[in-house]
Amino acid sequence: MEHKRMYYTLPATAWSKNGEEVGGEAAKAPWNFERTWMEGFPIGNGRLAAMVWGDEEIDRLTLNHEWLWKGQHKNRRSPDNAGHLGEVRELIRKGDWEEATRLGNLYFSGGTNADRRIDPYQPAGDLTFLPDQVKAFISRELDLETGLTTTLRETPEGTLKSEAFIDCEGNTLRCRFTSDAPFSGTLSLFREPEKDTTLTFHTTPETIRMDGSIAGGIQFAVQIWAETDGIAAVSEEGKLRIEGATILSIEGNMATSQADLGKELSHRSGKDFDAAFSSHSKRFSEMMNRLQLTLSEDPALEALTVDQRVQRVREGKQDNGLCQMYFDYGRYLLLSSSICGELPANLQGKWNNNMNPPWDCDFHFDINIEMNYWMAEPVNFPECVEPLTRYVLRFMESGRDSAERLYGCRGVYLPLQADAWAKATPEIFGWHTWIGGAPWISQSLWNHWLYSGDRTYLERIYPFLTAVAEFYEDYLVRDPDGTYQILPSQSPENFIVGLPYPVLLCQSSAMDVQLCYDALGYAISAAEELDVDSTRVSLWRSIREHLPPFRIGPDGRLLEWDREFPEAEPGHRHLSHLYGLYPSELFTPETRPEQYQAAIRSLDFRLSHGGGYTGWSRAWVACLKARIGDAEGFYEHFTALIKDFATSTLLDLHPPRVFQIDGNLGAVAAGIEALVGFYDGKAHLLPALPKEWAEKGSLKGVRLPGGHLLSFAWENGELTELSVTVGFGETVSLAFNGDVCTLHGRVGETVKLI
User: What confidence score (pLDDT) does residue 299 get?
Assistant: First the structure.
């Protein structure tokens, strides 16, 4: 089976145009063609995106432009409340958690919810084509290798095929409708009305244009160019009527006033559909094929569609092919979110159909944006990290301003949530009094250096790494015994019994201490690599050595806070205190065996109380299980993402039924970790290979720190092939079944070990 193709079908007799129920076996099938946006197939190149969906009779593409954020709060600034920091600190020292949390949120979280100023990410509108007559919907398909969707419908004259992709070379939307017999239909643009948005439309026989202006915010536009061998005319409703065509080819573009709207909108690729697809697919497939995962599977499942296969997994049946597809789909989504983008993937990548989407489709720095990019380096998508790097570095000015105004500190501060404008302002009372966003996202920047060895890149991110360290210099409070305390602190997003707020403010939560330890380490290592700032390095080393210990409670669990508290939600979705286990490597059997075991006990405790109840949380659990070598646990939670947290087209869900992309992307990181985990300076091969995958498989082209490319295969859980293409690091250590092999080679040399 071609696992890079996702098929979604409805038997032709399972629906009727007049809405009457149709009998027969097809109507009794457990699957169905769901007519919702979340059951569509996403296409994109980072700048532009579209969800391809619709009902049996209409093709519908919901359009997105990465810069179409409402834009009414682009110039916001943090309040000047640093003078209250001492008051909150004193309350925490006294143990008055409730009042400390109330005042901390009042002063350092942007006030009440009514004052929230995050701009929502919005859709540009919908492009639709309604054929005049459809007898039956046949199928919809997404090719993960090229990003091409193909939909087939039966008309009275024959089969109508619609194709769509977003060109990563020509940087436009491309659609084509073809049929052996003439077809007719209506092409239109539409956007949901909003009271503060003005829309204007202009249609000619060759074009449709929609312009939008948001009061006090951004301007945007959508331009559609249509070519056909039929007759095109403007209808009375301002739509484009197509009569007697065998081909309708569409090129589309979108633009916003973030840049030069007119210049951006006027861009066309200048190629016909086939030529554009050829150049696009060459680049797109090259990136998708850099890494190849194969698993043994049941050939009898090859004829089933993705919705049917999801249903089988929900019924408890095994499907390695669907696991492989889910893994590839996550890579596809990151690539489609980032390959030509200026902004990183947000909570829904770049796909959204709501004017006021859940959590504004924003960027969460307390897990979600980090999880989106955990897999970027190992799957060899370094280009996808560039939008993230660019976005983080844009925070420098606002982050410095907020650090000073909120806390009276030098350095840089990032909020828990942010939008496209890179303003470091906390906006949600009850959640945002947290200073860990900047150090956590530092890990993503640092990882790119570890995998690329690009000294120019290190010089580029060094000011941010040092600004994070500089913030800690001023923010930390030293106890009489010499310990540096993080005050106030929180463990996102957990709280304790009796606290009427959703997050506890305390002193030196486990996660904040772990983040500080790592972030100072990045600054130290970067300075030493660049041979600069020796005096500052000495200070950072001293601070790091005097941070609070990683405490273990009487029951053997890693403490989440600086002391034992009664947890209001023992099964909380966040696993913040386990950052040191994954994605960090602070706690390993070699470095800190006691904390490693304590972290495992904490994970088991949280799961025993119902933890992992969102898609992204379950993906994190799968990563943690893979890191500790729990193959059965990894498989349980990886497949739960399909069984319990996926639409019938495999999009990840946050309860009750909200698409959130981090679960899709985090699952890829978990799959990598189960097959090759890197920590303690070694690549650990097949550390959590589940028995369901053990019969036969391979992973080729996985990237390691040092720039090495690793390929291997296995049968019955034993390695049968193993080769390494040596990266800039020239030395790589591999561990398998307790044995360690250290390989020395020349850059670019491929060494076959088995």
Answer: 86
User: ∠ at Cα 59 (53, 61), nearest 5°?
Assistant: 55
In terms of Cα–Cα distance, which of 663, 546, 678 is closest to 614? 663
* Secondary structure class of 695 (helix, strand, coil): coil
Residue 524 identity: I
Which segments of the chain have a pLDDT < 70?
1-35, 112-114
pLDDT for 196 equals 95
Beta bridge partners of 250: 175, 226
Q: What pLDDT, on a 0 to 100 scale, did the predictor assign at position 36? A: 87
Rounded CA separation 150/578 (Å): 43
Give the pLDDT confidence score for residue 53 in this predicted structure.
Answer: 94
Question: How many angstroms separate the Cα of 493 from the Cα of each of 38, 345, 367, 426?
Answer: 27, 22, 10, 15
Q: Considering just the CA atoms, what is the radius of gyration of the chain in Å? A: 27
Percent of the chain with pLDDT over 70: 95
**Cα–Cα distance, 710 to 751 (Å, whole number):** 10
pLDDT score recorded for residue 32: 37
Tokens of 309: 């296969």
Per-residue pLDDT at 26 = 31
Q: Note whether 29 and 11 are within 8 A (CB).
A: yes
Determine contact, residues 538/524, Cβ cutoff 8 Å. Answer: no
**What CA–CA distance (Å, rounded) separates 97 from 66?**
41
End-to-end CA distance of the chain: 27
